[in-house]
Amino acid sequence: MPEGHSVHRIARQFDRNFVGRAVTASSPQGRFVEGASVIDRRTPTEVRAVGKQMFLEFDDDIWLRVHLGMYGAWDFAGEILVDPTIASANGRMGQTNQRGTDLEPVFDTAGENSLSSIGAPRRTRVHVRMSEQTRGLADEGDQWPPPVVGQVRLRLMTDATCADLRGPTACQLQTPDEMLATVAKLGPDPLVDDVAEGEERFAAVVRRKPTPIGLLLMDQTVVSGIGNVYRAEMLFRARLNPHTPGRDVPEETVRGLWRDWVRLLAIGVETGQMMTMDDLNPDAYRLAMAHRDDRHWVYHRAGLPCRVCGTAIVLEEMATRKLYWCPSCQA
């Protein structure tokens, strides 16, 4: 499932490429025809990302709500204006968590930091013409608009940029009140809410819950944006047993989880990758950025030795989702 960093990156793409530009809207798949007709020829005026959900405002107070869910993604084609504050395989790869070191671009073999397709992992089939921090333009013969490939729920197009939405859990139009009501149900997001206030909200909720902390971190009403990868990694970084009831987790540990989420989310937005390992030398960092298996402590490492103690990493199901943890370090 796309996690919070991906949705914030998508929102930044829309802010730079769609806000302030009239769009044509269609539903090639046919499942959002009425909604597309309402926003067709309108101009996006604002975009917001909260946790795993994005809200795109159009003139006349119409909001498009998109929740990518397990399989959703946005595919971008055409001319893409790159946000200079974020990195990609096609641009600068700032090493935020490595004491400010700036390395050469690193190409992720899984495409996790792709600018052309953001969301659930997939092989994109659209061509991207980069603008600003560019690596070249499309050939003059490239087809425009790009052909529709697969099941596209919603296509938004300006004169230069196309965005195709595939496989979302939710794609709906909302009034301003409906949008605010949706956001009100979500837990704090470090990139949206005041960080100090968010910490207080998060700590207050977790400290009164008998629910295991491994479930609370995935509850979007408790904290926004954390998914399976960040959940496993944050619990390991805190050396916290995922089955510990929230109310039994020491307050300082709870606050430490929030502060770690603040840090990891910022890194994820900048790099486009869920980098959760610290203090890597430049060679190890490049390897980790290029290969997903080398950038996590426990996630996707079932049966492999813990990087710290050597104990085999355990894989179990917690509320139907895979949970990876070290039974020794997190005892």
Automatic annotation (TrEMBL):
Cofactor: Zn(2+)
GO MF annotation: an example: zinc ion binding
EC numbers, comma separated: 4.2.99.18
UniProt keywords, alphabetically: DNA damage, DNA repair, DNA-binding, Glycosidase, Hydrolase, Lyase, Metal-binding, Multifunctional enzyme, Zinc, Zinc-finger
SMART domains in alphabetical order: Fapy_DNA_glyco, H2TH
Gene3D superfamilies recorded: 1.10.8.50, MutM-like, N-terminal
Keyword Glycosyltransferase: no
Cross-referenced SUPFAM superfamilies: Glucocorticoid receptor-like (DNA-binding domain), N-terminal domain of MutM-like DNA repair proteins, S13-like H2TH domain
Family matches, as CDD domains: AcNei1_N (cd08970)
Formamidopyrimidine-DNA glycosylase catalytic domain segment(s): 2-100
Pfam families linked to this entry: Fapy_DNA_glyco (PF01149), H2TH (PF06831), zf-FPG_IleRS (PF06827)
The FPG-type domain, residue ranges: 297-331
Single Gene Ontology BP annotation: base-excision repair
Family classification: Belongs to the FPG family.
PANTHER family according to UniProt: ENDONUCLEASE 8
UniProt protein name: DNA-(apurinic or apyrimidinic site) lyase
